[in-house]
Design goal:
Elements (H helix, E strand, L loop, with lengths): L4 H8 L9 H16 L5 E21 L3 E3 L1 E4 L10 E7 L5 H4 L8 E5 L4 H9 L4 E6 L18 H4 L6 E5 H9 L4 E22 L4 E11 L9 H20 L4 E8 L7 H9 L1 H7 E7 L8 E7 L2 H14 L3 E4 L8 H4 L5 E7 L17 H19 L12 H10 L4 H20 L1
Parallel strand pairs: 4-5, 5-6, 6-7, 9-10, 9-11, 11-14, 12-13
Antiparallel strand pairs: 1-2, 1-8, 3-7, 4-8, 8-10, 12-14
Amino acid sequence: MKDTYQYDLVSRLNFIRYGGTAEELRAANIIKEDIESFGGKAEIMNFKIPAYTAKKCSLKVVAPFEMEIETIEYGLSGSLPEGGVDLKLRYLEKGTADNFYGIDDLSDSIVLLNELSFGAYKLMCEKKAAAFMVVDGKWFHNSENSDFFQRNIGEKMLENGKVPGFFIWAKDATKLVLDHAEVIHAEMIQEEYETDSRDVVAVIEGTEKTDEALVITAHYDSIQFGTGCWDNATGSANIMYIYRHFLKNPPKRTLYFVWCGSEEQGLYGSKAFVAQHPELVEKNIKFCFNFDMCGTILGNNMIFATGNDDLKNFAEAFCREYGMVADIIHDVHSSDSIPFADKNIPGLGLSRGTRSADIHTRNDSIFPISAEQLNKDGDFAIAFITRVANSARMPVPTGMGDSMREKIDKYCQRDRKSLKDEAEEKAKAEAEKEKK
């Protein structure tokens, strides 16, 4: 007989749960109440996140023709002078160094990009771009059939400075380039502040090896304009299913369950947990299981192995042993396992991919998800976690090899050269200290 609990929880979380809002708190309380209904204990842990309100945001072509451009703001990207400015349009495609070659000063220009990368943003800051626009969607998308995928400028990007940014539809961007738009009037006023987001944390104490722990994570927030049933009410429901099992069947090692807030805005919840528990992360947590998008009726199983080769080999062997067919992807997982991997904690990201559902849109609904598949995903995860949590020794060591560390640094938008220089300076200072 199938267990409908996971599906029921996805149904109850079927509302917009954007990080830092009252609706995110509502979702956190639903999760906390379910934990307590099983006889467990949960804590809602607050943390601060950057937020903003867009007071003004508009774009209009003013030469050589006139055209209103539908747009929304790139969050936390700053403001333009009151009343707006007229700016020259420059289309710089992917925003590579080659695209920017020969351009020294963009202070009178608004840059149109196919996509925004860390490198492109850094170059715009260096060349003092007045503003930028990023293409969103396909040529046939508009506000009647889709939504802008609103995002915020990341923390590492902001270290380079602020350039006010806009999203525009691909159909409008196409017209700007095709009809040789030259001057655009841009207005942007953003009021920035901090607000509260929150994690929900529950702990199951181990029966023997209490000095070692596993962390089990899933984000429960959604984007601003969609209910995020697949991404990631399903992951949240899955780890609740797992929590319920281990509450009745505690393993040898301690389990930390973290429902992470504000993942969609930049992994803020998992980053906050790591920052709030430095000793636990450094000394006790040895493994991470992360769940992001599960339960689709059509699709295939995927496991992201972020760690050394031993981790990938372990995942492959366990899948064969269990009889699970899954794609093992030896790479970073763009989800809440990243802050733990950054602290050298190996992680497995369990997910189920499909072409029959969509994320980060209004169409991320409960329709492609089934209670039966959620059960299968949850039962496999319980078996896998049991294997690790009850092992005589941890099946894989902590630590990241050079190749994976490089991938993590790239994902975190770190300057590898600066990191190398810092390491060499530190080693040099320690050598000098030893001489004295």
